[in-house]
Amino acid sequence: MIQFPKSYTPRWIVFLIDLFICAISISSAFLLRFNFNIPPEYYDGLSFIIPYVLFIRSVTFLIFRSYAGIIRYSGAKDTERIFIVALTGSVIFIIINAINYFLVNGTFIIPFSIVVIDFLLTVFLMASFRLATKIIYQELYNPSKEKTDVVIYGASQFGVITKRTLDRDAESKHKVVAFFDFENSNIGKTLEGVNIFHPDYLEELVEKNTIDKLIIAKEEIGPTEKQNIIEKCLQYDIRVLSVPDINTWINGELSFNQIKEINIEDLLERPPIVLDVNKIKKKVLNKNVLVTGAAGSIGSEIVRQLINFNPNKIILFDQAESPLYDMELDLQEKFNFYNFEIVIGNVADEYRIRKLFEVYKPSYVYHAAAYKHVPMMENNPTEALRTNILGTKIISDMSHEFKVEQFVMVSTDKAVNPTNVMGASKRIAEIYVQAFNQVSDTNFITTRFGNVLGSNGSVILRFKKQIDKGGPVTVTHPDVTRYFMTIPEACQLVLEAGAISNGGEIFIFDMGESVKIIDLAKKMVKLSGLTIGKDIQIKYTGLRPGEKLYEELLNDMENTIPTHHSKIMIAKVRNYDFHQVQEQFTELIKLQKDHNNFEIVRKMKEIVPEFKSQNSAYEELDIELQNAKE
After folding, report:
1. Can you say whether residue 571 is alpha, beta or left, with left for phi > 0 and alpha for psi between -120 and 50 degrees?
2. Are 64 and 35 part of one and the same domain?
3. Average pLDDT of 312-334?
4. Active-site option among 283, 414, 523, 603
5. Residue 3: pLDDT above 50?
6. pLDDT at 553
C-alpha cells in the first residue's frame, strides 16, 4: 500500500506552493475577466503585475504565517486564516490602486474587477489545495475500507469536535457514518457531511452498516438517557465510548486517546445528589475531623468530600501505610490541600487511640475503619471481633470521653438479618453506638448502605481483572442480587445524614433497585467488546461461606421514617439498654484472647438473635440454639 511519509512537509515548500497558487489565481483572473482574450495593453502589463501580486502576497503570508499549518490536518481554522490573509492582500491592492489613481498618474495598477476575482480564486484554490492534500493523505495512509464504522451520539459542538478528532488522528481507523440526536430540528440534516438520525434508527442502521462503536459526545446527558443508549447498543454488540468532560482536555483540545470506554458504573449511575451544603459546612467549618479507615475506598472519599467544607484539620487514621502515603500525595498534588495529618495505627489499639484524641481533639469522627470481606471474616471471627467490634467500642468510648460533638459510623446492609460473621460484627457495633447515644452528650449515629461501586474488593473490580485476563468471569450463583451505589454518592449521603441527625438514629440510604450479579457480569463482558461463550466464559462457583442471595436494608422488625432528603430514611429499630450492652460487650471481648471461633460466634448469636449462618460451619450453632429453646 502506498503511504505518505510520516514526516511533515517543510514550511518553505508550502510557502512556494501558495505563491504558485497566487500566480495561477491572478493569471486566471485576467483570463476570466476578458473571456480568455486579454487585450494587448493588459497583456503587456502582466510581466509587472504578477511579480507585484506575488510580492504583496508573500509579505502577508509571512505576517500571518499561513504556511505554518500542517497541511494534512487542515481544518476550519486554517480556512479562516487563508480568508484573512487573502483579504488583507486584496485590500492592499485596492489601497495602492487608490493612491496610484489619485496621487500619481490617474490609472489603476490592477482593475478592481480583477482584484475581486483574484481574491475569490486565491481563497478557493489555497483552501482546496489543503483539503485535497488532507483527503489524499488520509485515504492513502488510512484507507476507508480498513476503517470501522462509528456513530456519534450528539449532533452538537461536542459531536463535531469528536468527528474532527477521529478524522485528524490517522491511527484511529474509524469512519463516522451517522450522528444521533433527539432534537427533532436536527434530524434529517447533515453535519460535517454526515446524516443526523433519531436514536430509534439504530436498528436499521445496524442492518446497513457494520457498526463497531458508538461514541457519546454530549456535554450534558442525564443518567437515564445515557443508560438507555448504552442498553440499546449492548443489544447489538456495539461498544460504547464516551468523550470526557471538557475540563480534562489537554490545552483545550480533545485527543483520540482521551475517548474512553464506558464503565459499568455508567449503567448504574443515578441523578446527582443535592446536598444541604450550608448545613454540612456549619458543622465542620474550622473544626478538627477524624476519619478512621481513611485509606479505604469509603474513608478516602469522605476525606475528599470534607475538603469542600473548610475544616480546620482532617486527621487521616489507618493502618495501611502505602495507601495512606498515596492519599497524602493525592491531597497535596491534586487538591492542593495541606490541612491534614496522617496517623498510622489500629483502631483496636486503645493506647494509640487515646493519644490520638489527646493530641488532635477532634470535634467530629467519621468511623469507616472495618474489615468487610464476608468469606475472610467467616474464617477469622477473632479479627472481626477485634476490629469491627472492639475497634468501634474504643473509638466510641474516646469520642465520649473527649466530648466529641458527633460520631458517625459507616455500617452495611449485611448487618440486617446477618448470615455471616462480618454482618453480625457490624450489627453488634451498631447496637453499641446506638445504645451509647442514650447516655452520652456526643451525638452517635449510624449510616447503613449496600455495596459501593469500585470499592476495594468490589465485585466490579474482580470482574474487570478477570475480563482483562481473558476469563473466566466467576459468579457465585445465577440468582444472587446486590444493591449498588457509587462511592461519592454514598459518602455525600454520609455527610448529609450527619448534618441532619439529632442522635441515636440508624440512617439507611435509597440504594435504588437491586441488581442481578449475573446481569452485571454479562454487561461488563459486552462493554469490553467480547462475546460470552466465544471470547470469554462465565462460570458459577457456588455461594461462599456466610454469603446470602439477597441483601436487605431493614430487618423484619424494622420500618422507616422519611427525612427531608428523599434518599435518606431513618430506620425505626428497637432500643437497647446501654449498661446491658456493656456487659455483653465485656463478655464477648474476653473471648478474643482464646481465639475460639465457635465460642465467639456463639456469643454473637446471643447478642444478635436474628444472626442465622448460611453456607457456613457455624450453622450447627443455630441448630444447637434452636434445640436449647425447644
Report:
1. beta
2. yes
3. 94
4. 414
5. no
6. 61
* The C-alpha cell that represents 525 in the structure block: 463482558
Question: Does 557 score more than 70 pLDDT?
Answer: no
Split into its structural domains, the chain has a count of 3
The answer to whether position 169 is within a domain reads yes
Domain annotation covers residue 537: no
The answer to whether residues 329 and 196 belong to one domain is no
**Active site annotation includes 414:** yes
The pLDDT of 392-410, averaged and rounded, is: 95
Give the phi and the psi of residue 318 in degrees, each rounded to 5. -165, 165
Look up the domain containing 420 and give its range: 296-452+485-512+552-607
* In the predicted structure, residue 561 carries a pLDDT above the cut 70: yes
* Cα separation, 289 vs 362, whole angstroms: 5
Query: Would you state the pLDDT for residue 510?
Result: 76
Same domain, 248 and 100: no
Question: Which of 221, 220, 167, 158 lies closest to 193 in space, CA to CA?
Answer: 167
Contact criterion met (CB below 8 Å) for 330 and 516 = no
Q: Are residues 236 and 344 in the same domain?
A: no
Domain end among 91, 113, 141: 141
pLDDT surpassing 70 at residue 256: no
Coil, strand or helix at 219:
coil
In a domain, 37, yes or no: yes
Q: Which of 293, 552, 561, 562 lies closest to 427 in space, CA to CA?
A: 552
Domain's final residue, options 119, 141, 163: 141
8 A C-beta contact, residue 60 and residue 92:
yes
Q: Are residues 150 and 240 in the same domain?
A: yes
The values of phi and psi at residue 88, to 5°, are -60, -45
Which triple of cell numbers denotes residue 411?
455500617
CB atoms within 10 A of CB 206: 17
Residues 124 and 212 in one domain: no
Only one residue has cell 463535531, namely: 160
On whether the CB atoms of residues 500 and 276 are closer than 8 A, the answer is yes
Question: What integer pLDDT is reported at residue 556 of this predicted model?
Answer: 46
Do 461 and 373 contact (CB within 8 A), yes or no? Answer: no
- Residue 11 backbone zone (phi > 0: left; psi -120 to 50: alpha; other: beta): alpha
The pLDDT of residue 351: 96
Selected residue with higher pLDDT from 459 and 400 = 400
pLDDT at 381 over 50: yes
Per DSSP (E only), the strands in 487-603 are: 506-509, 515-516, 538-540, 559-562, 568-572
Amino acid identity at 581: V
55 and 109 both lie in a single domain: yes
Question: Using CA atoms, how far apart are residues 118 and 124, in angstroms rounded to an integer?
Answer: 10
Count CB neighbours of 576 within 10 A. Answer: 17
Give the whole-angstrom CA distance, residue 31 versus residue 121. 12
Is the CB of residue 181 less than 8 Å from the CB of residue 210?
A: no
Q: Which parts of 334-388 fold into alpha helices (H)?
A: 350-360, 374-379, 381-383
Q: Does the predicted TM-score (pTM) go above 0.85?
A: no
Task: Give the CATH number for residue 413.
Answer: 3.40.50.720
312/393 same-domain check: yes
Count of beta carbons in the 10 Å neighbourhood of residue 172: 17
Confidence of residue 1 (pLDDT cuts 50, 70, 90): very low
Tell me if 591 is assigned to some domain: yes
> Which three three-digit cell numbers place residue 170?
490517522
